[in-house]
Amino acid sequence: MTQHLTTTEFTGEAIADDHLANAHLDRAWLAAQVRGMIEDAEEEIDPDESLIFYGLDSIAVMRFAAELKTYGIEVPFEALAAAPSLTNWWTLIEAHRAG
What we know:
This protein is mainly alpha-helical. The protein has a single domain (17-96), classed as Non-ribosomal Peptide Synthetase Peptidyl Carrier Protein, Chain A (Orthogonal Bundle). It has 6 helices and no strands. It has helices at residues 7-11, 17-21, 27-37, 58-70, 77-82, 86-96.
């Protein structure tokens, strides 16, 4: 039987699970997520251009908001939809990131 150590047991300190889960999130991660949401993502995405221009739809934005919640980052759908660019989304993610 394999024993899994908790963060506290391994490091001697408690770290929130959502903080660990979103520690790898960076601009490259965001760009990769957005490319996955856009059908024709072969072209380079301008970080300041509206993602609507690239074909992003509201359903994809809703799914992305839900995915962010799994990382402990609660950015409302409305905020993402109101400012659909990589630069704006990264600013929102950073502002809502735990810790």
